[in-house]
Design a protein that fits this description.
This protein is an alpha+beta fold. 31% of the residues lie in helices and 18% in strands. Among the domains are: 329 residues, Beta-galactosidase, Chain A, domain 5 (Distorted Sandwich), CATH 2.70.98; 175 residues; 31 residues, no CATH class.
Length: 832
């Protein structure tokens, strides 16, 4: 997946099949197989124009290339995908299919990965994509399938509100995988999630049906589940089902079902297991002597399944035709942990050392009474908000927003990966080896990718593929769900409250996505990272249109009437690159921009991302800056400069890893000078911090809400100062870091707000100690700290050169297209 500068392996993806007997603690190693005898590869996967045929140990599996998710399994079992919409007819186009054959180190067949994508026509419009990813294993014939449904359209509603019920939403009647078979077709149906319990409980039935109506939790009717009609319409707590045996019907109810289906065929058995069946309700099953249907939008539940524009609905299913199969074989393993000392030695993950296990803040993550933080904090929060259902599952309850809520019921607020809890969970998983953190990361990634990211290219460029904000501060989500702004929310609830808009640069968190890709090999995570980088470039570098240029000029707050401070175009956001001076604002949006560029460079090794990150840094700070003019005493308006400096520290770390400096040359190259100037600017700001900064709550009077979220933000200062100390060995830096630590750690541990999601996430993301930053900057230490400012280098294009570049890339058709997107009234004018 990734190489070190000397071309040795840095990250690699390993795949294997574990016997069910290996469910106890087992150590796994990678060994050199170069001396092994390599048998000839079997011709076990054959592709023709219409099929892919996979010869497994349990029989032949055939994939139809002319139909979506259509398989023929051994013993006359076949599958087909069913997709229906309410009041709309859907037609599948022929799918596009790709496949990859995987062998083990002995060149024996292991797995065939198949990806199918089909465009779906609705009302003569190509507005939906369905995707199926299948992993078919040679040894046991098990198939792990992920099916997803994507509404590719953009929101139609104008005005910065994102409520359910948009006219471009789609209402799903059925999203099902159907298994047809011949033979006895006798059902062995159980609701148990445990193999041992399943063997005890399974009984034969002629017919079985089950519908999961809601989560079945105590708060199953939480206002979290409002529909477009602004009310909760769930009909039943938990699940209902019935079975028929010899003409006798038995009905039953349960709260949380995780059905495991076993169909007794003539010569074998069909096993089916749906992942997160109750968590991602509404789900249903219908199983008879001839077919079994697993429906991920069960209409019988009465739940309205609305797929919003730019949203993806995704479900995973495992199935197999075999003599015996266990539950654990039909899901991807999440119980592996990495050897921490080995991981630390590799230095593949920055600022991660065993010393962090003794960090004082470990007591913040793990309950001092010995209760699991996984159960005590995160699962309890899920239950409190009832963060279940296909759209909600995996997200975190933003309980800090309810601190001053005095109303009845639950205060609904969604977190949407603010401050990157995905990275925090992965960090704690690697540190502690606790698989619960990996499970939290898996659930959060699934939600973030499918729901929180706006998967469309048909909206404003500064919205397309962007990450939606968390629920607006201090107001419940209402019918905005996970999309921030609702027409039902109050206005003017805090200073400078906007109450509308879309994805924004100040809410872009990519590091968790990048590391999720590196730690799992999940290509969606890699794609999401580079998509976020593309989105941020549209925000800061523009869309190439004249209208976009005018909007950026307005937002820069630069154009003023002659001899006046009055803005010519009115007040803008101030969060874009100034098109006249080429300077970026020193804020968290710019910091996020640098960070996502560095993450994209890290996982792709494309130098263009690194060069752009350098360009942004050099046009934001300099070692020549008069920092007193930055007005850092105005905390509410400037606190996020620390987010930017953290991104600069990350740049210096990546450069040190990459060995980009000419260590053998007495003359510095341009790249070396660039890094030297960035290092000097970083040290310049860190020096100011060591001499002037204090903890935020020392200035309570200047804060609108002086709570311990500010104390959590202080952790950023500690990280920056420790990195600067490692670069300079300045005792002043270390003294200030220790001074802040002596206040911040006890304050967080004793805070009544310590278990709030935001404080937990800030702490997970930012806690470091001196050993964890040591030896990460060796590659840049030898560069001179005092270096000429590089604002005059060629990479900082002069105004005239930028105008020429703009004109060369200008397109009238693009101008018209984006004019219609920004001002819908022009659609009729240009017949768009």
């Amino acid at each position: 997946m990734q190489l070190w500068p000397d071309q040795s392996i840095k990250w690699m993806s390993c795949e294997g099949v574990f016997p069910s007997a290996a469910e106890t603690n087992t150590s796994l190693y990678i060994t050199d197989a170069s001396k092994a005898v390599e048998p000839k590869r079997l011709n076990w996967v054959v592709k023709t124009d219409k099929t892919i045929t996979i010869k497994t140990n349990v029989g032949v599996i055939s994939v139809d290339l002319t139909k979506f998710c259509s398989l023929k399994l051994p013993h006359k079992v076949s599958t087909v995908c069913q997709l229906e919409f309410v009041d709309k007819k859907a037609t599948f186009n022929s799918p596009h299919t790709e496949y990859e054959v995987v062998y083990d180190s002995q060149q024996r067949p292991l797995c065939c990965h198949i990806s199918q994508t089909s465009n779906v026509i609705i009302d003569n419009l190509l507005c939906v994509k369905v995707n199926a990813k299948l992993a078919i294993y040679y040894t046991n014939g098990n198939i792990i399938t992920n099916v997803s449904l994507h509404n590719t359209r953009s929101i139609a509603t104008w005005g910065g509100k994102w409520d359910l019920g948009d006219e471009n939403s789609l209402y799903i009647k059925s999203l099902a995988l159907i298994f047809n078979y011949e033979g006895k077709g006798q059902q062995l149906f159980t609701l148990s999630q445990e193999d041992k319990k399943r063997q005890e409980d399974k009984k034969p039935y002629d017919y079985a049906q089950l519908t999961q109506y809601s989560s079945g939790g105590d708060n199953w009717q939480s206002e979290n589940h409002k529909t477009r009609r602004n009310k909760v319409e769930l009909q039943h707590k938990g699940a209902k089902g019935s079975v028929i045996l010899k003409g006798q019907t038995t009905e039953f109810e349960t709260l949380r079902s995780q059905p495991f289906i076993e169909i007794a065929l003539e010569q074998s058995n069909l096993f089916i297991q749906a992942q997160h069946f109750w968590q991602k309700y509404p789900c249903g099953l219908r199983s008879s002597s001839k077919r079994t249907v697993i429906d991920f939008a069960d209409q019988k539940s009465g739940c309205e399944v609305e797929l919003q524009p730019g949203e993806i609905k995704s479900h995973t299913l495992g199935f197999s035709v075999a003599n015996e199969c266990s539950l654990t074989q039909l899901k991807l393993s999440n119980c592996i942990s990495l050897d921490l000392s080995n991981t630390q030695q590799s230095q593949a993950i920055p600022f991660l050392t065993e010393s962090l296990l003794q960090h004082p803040l470990q007591n913040l993550f793990h309950d001092p009474n010995g209760e699991s933080s996984y159960d005590h904090k995160w699962l309890a929060k899920r239950e409190a908000l009832d963060e279940f259902g296909w759209r909600n599952f995996g997200d975190l309850f933003a309980d800090h927003e309810a601190a001053h809520y005095e109303g009845d019921g639950i205060f609904v607020s969604h977190y949407n990966n603010q401050y990157d809890p995905l990275f925090g969970f992965l960090k704690l998983w690697i540190l502690t080896g606790k698989s619960e953190y990996k499970t939290l990361a898996d659930d959060l990634f699934d939600h973030t990718f499918n729901i929180d990211i706006y998967h469309t290219v048909f909206d404003k460029p500064e919205y397309n593929k962007g990450l939606f904000w968390h629920t607006d501060h201090y107001v419940p989500a209402e019918t905005a769900s996970h999309r921030t702004y609702s027409v039902h929310q109050e206005c003017d609830v805090y200073i400078d409250h906007i109450g509308g808009g879309g994805p924004g640069s100040h809410h872009c968190y990519s590091t968790g996505l990048a590391f999720y890709y590196l730690l799992t090999g999940n290509q969606k995570a890699k794609q999401a990272t580079v998509d976020l980088a593309q989105w941020m470039q549209q925000i800061y570098e523009g869309d190439g249109t004249l209208l976009g240029l005018v909007i950026r000029a307005k937002n820069a707050n630069y154009l003023k009437f002659p001899l006046s401070n009055k803005l010519l175009l009115g007040s803008g956001t101030g969060v874009v690159r100034n098109v006249f001076t080429n300077k970026y604002p020193l804020d968290r949006g710019t910091g996020n921009n640098v960070n996502v560029l560095l993450d994209s460079f890290d996982i792709s090794q494309q130098q263009s991302y690194l060069r752009q990150a350098e360009f942004v840094i050099l046009n934001t700070i300099s070692s020549q800056d008069d920092i007193s003019k930055r007005d850092f005493n105005n905390i509410e308006e400037t606190w996020f400069y620390t987010v930017f400096l953290q991104a600069v520290a990350k740049y210096l770390y990546l450069i040190s890893q990459g060995g980009a400096m000419n260590k053998s040359s007495a003359k510095l190259t341009v790249k070396d000078k660039t890094t030297s100037a960035i290092k000097a600017a970083f040290i310049h700001y860190a020096t100011w911090m060591s001499e002037n900064e204090t903890h935020y709550l020392a200035n309570k009077d200047s804060l609108e809400y002086p709570n311990d979220t500010w104390t959590g933000q202080d952790l950023r200062k500690i990280q920056i100062l420790l990195c600067a100390f490692e670069l300079t060995h300045s005792e002043t830096m270390l003294r200030k870091a220790n001074e802040l630590s002596d206040y911040v750690y006890p304050s967080l541990l004793s805070s009544k707000e310590r278990n709030y999601t935001r404080i937990q996430v800030l702490s997970m993301q930012n806690f470091v100690d001196l050993p964890s930053v040591k030896n990460y900057f060796e590659g840049v230490k030898q560069l001179a700290e005092k270096q000429q400012d590089l604002s005059g280098l060629k990479q900082n294009k002069r105004y005239f050169a930028r105008v020429i570049t703009f004109l060369k890339q200008y397109s009238i058709s693009r101008e018209i297209g984006l004019l219609c997107v920004r001002i819908p009234a022009f659609k009729k004018v240009f017949n768009k």
